[in-house]
Amino acid sequence: MQIRPADLPARLKGALAPLYVVHGEEALLVLEAAQAVRDAARAAGILEREVLTVESGFKWHELAAAGQAISLFAERKLIDLRIPNGKPGTEGGEALQQYAANPSPDNILLIQLPKLDKPQLSSKWFTALESAGVVVQCQTVGRNELPAWIAERLQRQQQRLSSEAMAWLVARVEGNLLAAKQEIDKLALLHPPGELDLTAVTDAVASVARYDVWGLGEALVAGDAARYIRMLDGLKGEGEAPHLVLWALSDEIRALMRVGLGRAQGGNLQQLYRENRVWGDKQKRYPAALDRLKASQLKAALTHAAQIDRTVKGVGEGDAWEELVKLGLRLMPAPR
To answer: Where are the beta strands (DSSP E) in the chain?
Structure first.
C-alpha cells in the first residue's frame, strides 16, 4: 500500500502493519516518517529495536535471524533495516521477497531506502514489500507544494500566515525543507497562535533559500522575473560557476525551441516533452511559455548565450553574471 508522508500519522493510530518501507529524496520527510514508525512501535509496547545496515560484507541471513530471534525480555521487536544505496542485489532481493511472503507476527520491519528509480520500483522485491506492508514515498516538496506544506505545519502549532507573509517565506526557504522546518519551529517560539503578518515573519526568519541551476529554467519558463533574479543572485552568492548556469539556461532555451517547433508541426506534446527532458510541473507551464515566446526571440537568446560563453572563457567583454540577468529578462513577459 502506497501512502503520502502526511497520511502516515493517521495510519499509525490503528493496528500497526508488519512492514513499513520509507523511501525518497526528501531527507527531512524520510527521517520524520521513520521516526514516526519507531514512536508508534514504542507506544504499542515494542521496546526492543535491532538496526541492520546493508553495506559491504552484510549477510542477508541476518534479516531472517533477526526476525526469528525473540529476546528473553521482550515479546516483540522493531527491525530497522537500512539500505543506503537502494540496491539489495540478487541475494537481498530474494531475502526481502521471502520476508514479505511471511512477515513475522512478532516483529515490525522498517526499511529505509533512498530515492528509487523506475526499475527498482517495479522490481520483484519492491512489489513484494508493497503488497505486504505500507510504503511511504517522500518526494521532493517543490515550490508549488511548499505553501501547503508550510500551512499544514503551522496549523499544528495553531498559526497561519497572511498571503503576503507566505509568499515571502516561500521565497526564503525554497529548496531547503530542513531550513523551512527550522523557521516554522522558530515562529512557534517567538509568536503566539493566530495569523502572522509579514512584519512578524521577517523579524524572525533568516534568508536560507538554496537554489540549483535547474530552478532557473523553471523561473524562465514561468516568466517569473523576480524569482529568476533572486535565484541568480543566490547562485552567485553560493559560488556557483557561471558556465554551469549558462549551460542550464541554454539547455532550457533549446528545449523551448524544439518543443515549440514540434508543436507548430502538429507533434504530440507529451512525446516532445519526453524527447526534450521536460518533466513535472514545468510541463504545465510550457504551453503558456511557448505562446509568449517567438522563435526569433529564442534564436536571439541563443546568440546572446554564445556571447556570454566567450565572456565566461575570458575572451569576450562584459560581466558574465550581469549578462546572465539580461539573458533571462529578454525572455520574460513585458512589464504591465
So the answer is: 2-3, 19-24, 48-53, 77-82, 107-113, 134-138, 159-161, 194-196
